[in-house]
Write a structure and sequence with these properties.
alpha/beta, 7-stranded mixed beta sheet, 5-stranded mixed beta sheet, about 35% helix
């Protein structure tokens, strides 16, 4: 019999990637299609939904590389989250661009809702703080532009959805559906019941008729349809948000393990184990729902990680890799870094402070390029350590930090993370961990493996153990916290 595979589609901000996963859970081949963004106004970030849709076919074709598409047993989706678009229910054609999760056009609307006293309700019901990153205010903006009187929405003529919903609805035709974990990032879902919350819909002025039906992470979903180069009818067996899929790919199915995904920004996430009253800076979200009740996770989202290294490189006329190397050399020579607080567009989690400013602090006459580079690099483990401290404060155990993403290839960064967090760091070598996690969930549906086999699967990687003493670690962390306070107080 010909070998069978799961096609995992990882739809991200900068590219759509496809990987073929075999019955051993290994990656057999990869393909990628790059994507662009547009910036129609300061703080606005858009993407073309049709280009994203077409990118599935391009990436899948590159991934198959001459294989018969009949080798695909099932499809799994991992998608970018929070980004939102509007489309016509009857035709499936987009009526708007995809408003990116990075978009900041709703900052003023966010503050207006806060002044009206809605922040506590939004936090309690959705598990998320009022912030422009989440989808609800993007949805309101789209309806204000394209359906200001909400007549089309109330008739169900238009559909609002995240990118997973757009894909699934195209597979299905006129059925409008979304996966529970992605839905939990919209700020319109009651995170505990996994149902659209009438009070939140009222706060954001979103008619329920425009929203999709919420499905479990393992479906049932409509089969693949209309993707160039792939036959219709391949079953879709798993859908997860990209950060949730990475948690699944790490095999962190029990509390105690927390994952950190390092990229342009960073996502820190771990299952709560029943704790649902978290520090206000930590989000409560649905990791996945494979039974009738959702599995809840604590998460926060750091806006600038790898982006800080890119910023420092632009400042100094070098690339991000050279920034990291100058930081390492400066550290090894006994140099002390400046403190860089990357509040370029305010600060995300765990502070959610849109008024915070960027700051370079603790400069001296002897501070040169190496000091700035080290400060930029140290901002990454310091921000993640802030999150881990608040997870522990909320009552969650953090026994291991599982790391993934491009920046984790830097061993010096990983050692700093272990030192500043005071926890063992396990670095995954898998560049496509989100795709792998979605495929693992689909493989459960195919009967290729069991939960026990997934949990017990050997996950190779590198281990980094804390090497700083308590006093030295606290001194470094207190230095960061003092500068963080300045970045936030400057706008008071």
């Amino acid at each position: 019999m010909p070998e069978k595979f799961i096609l995992a589609i990882d739809q991200g901000t900068s590219a759509t990637k496809c990987v073929l996963i075999d019955k051993k859970g290994h990656i057999a081949s990869r393909g990628s299609a790059p994507l662009g963004e547009s910036y129609p106004a300061p703080g606005w970030v858009d993407q073309d939904p049709e280009a994203i849709w077409a990118s599935i076919g391009f990436a899948a074709s590159a991934c198959l590389d001459g294989r018969d598409p009949g080798c695909i047993e099932a499809v799994a989706l991992s998608t970018q989250r929070e980004s939102m678009l509007l489309w016509d229910r009857k035709t499936g054609k987009p009526l708007s661009s995809l408003v990116s999760w990075q978009d900041r056009r709703s900052v003023d609307a966010c503050e207006a809702l806060r002044r009206l006293g809605h922040a506590d309700l939004v936090r309690e019901r959705s598990g998320l703080p009022l912030d422009p990153m989440f989808s609800a205010l993007k949805a309101k903006w789209l309806l204000d532009e394209y359906d200001p009187d909400r007549e089309k929405s109330r008739r169900g003529d238009v559909c609002l959805g995240t990118i997973d919903s757009f894909f699934l609805s195209r597979f299905a035709g006129d059925d409008h559906l979304t996966e529970a974990g992605n839905a939990s990032r919209t700020q319109l879902l009651n995170v505990r019941s996994a149902e659209w919350d009438p009070d939140l819909l009222d706060v954001f002025d979103i008619p329920a008729q425009a929203l999709p039906r919420v499905c479990r992470s393992n479906g049932p979903f409509p089969a693949l349809r209309g993707v160039a180069g792939l036959p219709d009818g391949i079953p879709t067996l798993a859908v997860l948000g990209d950060s949730h899929a990475a948690l699944f790919g790490h095999g962190l199915f029990q509390p105690g393990g927390v994952k950190a995904t390092y990229g342009t920004g960073s996502s820190v996430m771990g299952l709560t184990g029943g704790i649902d009253r978290l520090h206000p800076g930590i989000c409560l979200t649905i990791a996945w729902m494979v039974e009738d009740a959702p599995s809840l996770a604590a998460e926060t989202n750091i806006r600038s990680s790898g982006a800080t290294l890119k910023w420092a490189g632009n400042l100094l006329g070098i690339d991000a890799g050279e920034v990291a190397e100058l930081a390492r050399v400066h550290h090894l020579s006994g140099g002390v870094g400046a403190v860089v607080v990357p509040g370029f567009n305010g600060l995300g989690g765990p502070w959610w402070d849109n008024a915070a400013t960027g700051l370079i602090d603790c400069l001296g006459l002897d501070s040169g390029r190496g000091a700035v580079c080290l400060g930029a690099l140290e901002s990454i483990p310091n921000q993640i350590s802030d999150v881990v401290e608040l997870l522990r404060e909320s009552g969650m155990a953090v026994d291991v930090l599982s790391a993934d993403g491009g920046p984790t290839r830097n061993a010096f960064l990983m050692q700093l993370q272990a030192d500043y967090t005071d926890v063992r760091v396990h670095r995954s070598p898998d560049a496509e961990l989100s795709a792998l996690g979605a495929a693992h969930l689909a493989g459960l549906g195919l009967g290729w493996w069991t939960w026990g086999e997934l949990a017990g699967r050997e996950r190779p990687g590198e281990e980094y153990l804390p090497a700083l003493g308590r006093e030295e670690r606290e001194a470094k962390r207190n230095r960061w916290k003092a500068s963080l306070g300045k970045a936030r107080s400057r706008t008071a």
